[in-house]
Amino acid sequence: PEAEAQALLDHFETVDDTYGASETSKCYSTIWTRGPTGAASAVGKRRDSVINFIDASGQPVAKGSDGIVCIKNNYMAEGYVGNANLTKEAFRDGWFYPGDVGYEGDAGRIHFRNRLDHVINIRGEKVNAYAIDLIFRATRGIRDAIVFRNPKPDAIDELFAFVVFEAQANRIQAMESAKYAIRERFGEAMVPRVIRPVAGIPRKDDGTPDRKACADLILSLAAG
Fold it and tell me: What is the pLDDT of residue 114?
């Protein structure tokens, strides 16, 4: 944000706000400097990477329009060891999909935003549900997972989770490990109150997790 860059430029000649992932390393920088008038300005610089913005059908979006971020470079990972489902979701046709939405603005600047269908408001605090999904999936004994807001009418703000366990997993241990990791990173309010084992995670036609389908399933079960 410009205000933070202004504050840092009081102490540094250049501020490099870097974007990347462990799968791609550092792939983009917003570089802030201060001009003769003292005002901060910024330019965007891709770092040995191609960064595109596409719609749900895989077509490029117009400059300035929100699109799904996809990244390609010569040193990116090829997938996740022992997790074919997550690899299939995040690595497609030679591109890495970090789960972000963004757009390209002026001066080559890229503006990254939360993936719109992953943002959930819990007790007035917005959380990227995709990040919680990843914590579950990184837990030993859990193959796939998705979190979503309790859809029941008049329910309190809380998260539910569907989890696909490995065949020989200690389910209690896996759930407690995941809950601990979520609590440490996001706080108690973001720990799902209900964690329900399922055979598979509902997905949209483009392969992304379908939170609405999960919520609809809970409502149908509640209706009996």
Answer: 60
C-beta of residue 209 within 8 angstroms of C-beta of residue 128: no
Q: For the chain, list the domains and their CATH numbers.
A: 2-114 (2.30.38.10), 117-223 (3.30.300.30)
pLDDT confidence tier of residue 39, bands split at 50, 70 and 90: confident
116: pLDDT strictly greater than 70: no
Predicted structure pTM score: 0.55
What number of other Cβ atoms are within 10 A of residue 42's Cβ? Answer: 18
Structure tokens belonging to residue 113: 């935003």
> Hey, what amino acid is at 39?
A
Structure-token pair, residue 57: 């059908």
- Phi/psi at 213 (5° precision): -65, -35
Q: Say if CB 143 and CB 123 are below 8 A apart.
A: no
Residue 109 has pLDDT above 70, yes or no: yes
| Residue (of 71, 217, 76, 62) closest to 150 by Cα position | 217
Mapped onto helix, strand or coil, the DSSP state of residue 80 is coil
> What is the rounded CA–CA span in Å between residue 7 and residue 172?
47
